[in-house]
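Q: Got one fold?
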Amino acid sequence: MTESEKMEVKRMYQEGVSISELSRRTGHDRKTIRKVVQEREGIEKPLVGTKREVSWSRISHM
């Protein structure tokens, strides 16, 4: 996706166009659109929560 396409996607998203609709209009996958709208000044926001340590004591009691 070009920078101009990214700017257009961000603009349309700010105007209220849904990620699914942007996907249909541009032909790009919804995950790609989501990634683009979550970008902030060159720093991408994680799409999922951060990893955390597994508490083995909690697992062994299940």
